[in-house]
C-alpha cells in the first residue's frame, strides 16, 4: 500500500496528514488534522492536490492527435509530466479520412492507459460540426451534423464531448438527440446569437468551448454567444494562458459562471522549443509564448495545466482550493467522472505533489507514480 504525506487538499479543505492507495489504484484512506489554506501553503511540507483534468488537448511534445498512430500516447505522456492525470484527446475539423486516421490511433489509448501517461478518457470532437465563418484556427472542412459519420467514429473510439455551432442548419435539432444518446454537447466556433445559445441550452447543451474565442461577442444590445454563456451557463471552458483571454475577461467569467474550468487547448508545440509544428492540416509557429497561423491567428496554445494553476493563483489571485477545482474538479463533474478530480475515499488515486511555489515534484495516476523525465 502506497502512502503519501503532506498537506492534502480534500473536498472539505486542507488536512496535514497521510493518504494511502489501495492495490486497485483508488484512495483507501485519508487521515490528518485540518489546517488553513495559508498554513498549508506556507508550510515546507508538500502540497497534495487532485490531478489535473484537461478536456481540450490537441497535442504536445511535438505530436498532434490528428497524426494517429502512437501520437496520442506521446501527447498523454507529455501532459502527465505536467500533472494532467486524465484528458480528452481533441480532434480538428477535417475530412472523414483524416478523422479516421486519428481515431484509429486513439482506439488502443482509450482502451488502456499508455505507460507513464495520463488516462485518455475519450475524445472531444471539436468540429467538424461548426460554423465555417468562425473557424479560428480550424481547417476549412466545417459541415452540418451527420449522424452516420458520428456513429462510425464513435465505434472506433469513444466520443465524450462534441462542440457544435447550433445556428448551422440541422445542428440545433441534433443537440437534443446527442444529449439523449449520452454525449456532452457544448457550443463553440459559432456565429450564433444570444437566442441561439439560449435555445441550445434549453435542448441540453451544457457548456461553451474556449469561452470568448471563436464566438459572437457581448454587446449591450446584442449579447451574442458570450452573453448567453455569462448570463446562463453553469459550466464553460476557458484557456488561462493570458493570451486567449485578458485577465479582466477571465475575472468577468469567474464572477458569472459558477463552474468555469480551465483547458489548455494545447498543440504539438506544448513542451517544445520555438519553431514550426502541425495542427491538423495547418502549419503553425510557436514564438513569443504562443502558437499562431501565418496570418497571426492564435492556433491553440503551449499551455500546460501546472502553469494554468499558477496563473490562476499568482496572476488572477484565486486561493488554492478554488484554483484546484477549476483545473480538476469542475471538469470531472462536467464530464460525469465524479470519481476523479478530488481526493476522497474511493476516488482514483490521481494526485499532483507540489512545493510551496506550486512547482510540480511528483505525479500519481490511478495510484501509480510517474517518471517525470519530460517535465520542464
Automatic annotation (TrEMBL):
Family (UniProt): Belongs to the metallo-dependent hydrolases superfamily. NagA family.
Presence of the UniProt keyword Metal-binding in the record: yes
Keyword Hydrolase: yes
Cofactor: a divalent metal cation
Binding locations of substrate: 137, 213-214, 221, 244, 298-300
InterPro entries linked to this entry: Amidohydro-rel, GlcNAc_6-P_deAcase, Metal-dep_hydrolase_composite, Metal_Hydrolase
NCBIfam families the UniProt entry points to: nagA
Taxonomic source organism: Piscinibacter terrae
Name recorded for this polypeptide: N-acetylglucosamine-6-phosphate deacetylase
Signal peptide: none
Residue ranges constituting the Amidohydrolase-related domain according to the UniProt record: 48-367
Gene Ontology molecular function: metal ion binding; N-acetylglucosamine-6-phosphate deacetylase activity
Amino acid at each position: 500500500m502506497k502512502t503519501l504525506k503532506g498537506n492534502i487538499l480534500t473536498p472539505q479543505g486542507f488536512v496535514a496528514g497521510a493518504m494511502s492507495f489501495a492495490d486497485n489504484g483508488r484512495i483507501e484512506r485519508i487521515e490528518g488534522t485540518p489546517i488553513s489554506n495559508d498554513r498549508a501553503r506556507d508550510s515546507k511540507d508538500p502540497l497534495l492536490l487532485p490531478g489535473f483534468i484537461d478536456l481540450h488537448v490537441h497535442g504536445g511534445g511535438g505530436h498532434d492527435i490528428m497524426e494517429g498512430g502512437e501520437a496520442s500516447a506521446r501527447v498523454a505522456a507529455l501532459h502527465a509530466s505536467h500533472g494532467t492525470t486524465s484528458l480528452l484527446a481533441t480532434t480538428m475539423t477535417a475530412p472523414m479520412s483524416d478523422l479516421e486516421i486519428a481515431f484509429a490511433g486513439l482506439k488502443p489509448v482509450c482502451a488502456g492507459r499508455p505507460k507513464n501517461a495520463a488516462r485518455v478518457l475519450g475524445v472531444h470532437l471539436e468540429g467538424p460540426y461548426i460554423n465555417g465563418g468562425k473557424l479560428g484556427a480550424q481547417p476549412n472542412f466545417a459541415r452540418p451534423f451527420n449522424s452516420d459519420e458520428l456513429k462510425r467514429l464513435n465505434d472506433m473510439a469513444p466520443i465524450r464531448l462534441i462542440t457544435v455551432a447550433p445556428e448551422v442548419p440541422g445542428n440545433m435539432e441534433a443537440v437534443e438527440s446527442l444529449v439523449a444518446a449520452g454525449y456532452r454537447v457544448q457550443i463553440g466556433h459559432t456565429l450564433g446569437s444570444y437566442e441561439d445559445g439560449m435555445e441550445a441550452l434549453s435542448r441540453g447543451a451544457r457548456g461553451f468551448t474556449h469561452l470568448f474565442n471563436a464566438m459572437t461577442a457581448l454587446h449591450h444590445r446584442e449579447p451574442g454567444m458570450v452573453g448567453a454563456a455569462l448570463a446562463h451557463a453553469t459550466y464553460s471552458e476557458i484557456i488561462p494562458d493570458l493570451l486567449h483571454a485578458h485577465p479582466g475577461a477571465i475575472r468577468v467569467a469567474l464572477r458569472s459562471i459558477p463552474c468555469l474550468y480551465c483547458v489548455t487547448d494545447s498543440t504539438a508545440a506544448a513542451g517544445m522549443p520555438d519553431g514550426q509544428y502541425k495542427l491538423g492540416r495547418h502549419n503553425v509557429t510557436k514564438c513569443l509564448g504562443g502558437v499562431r497561423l501565418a496570418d497571426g491567428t492564435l492556433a491553440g496554445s503551449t499551455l500546460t495545466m501546472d502553469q494554468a494553476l499558477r496563473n490562476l493563483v499568482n496572476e488572477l489571485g484565486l486561493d488554492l482550493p478554488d484554483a484546484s477545482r477549476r483545473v480538476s474538479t469542475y471538469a470531472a463533474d462536467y464530464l460525469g467522472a465524479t470519481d476523479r478530480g478530488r481526493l476522497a475515499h474511493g476516488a482514483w488515486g490521481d494526485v499532483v505533489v507540489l512545493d510551496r511555489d506550486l512547482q510540480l515534484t511528483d505525479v500519481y495516476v490511478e495510484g501509480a507514480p510517474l517518471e517525470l523525465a519530460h517535465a520542464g
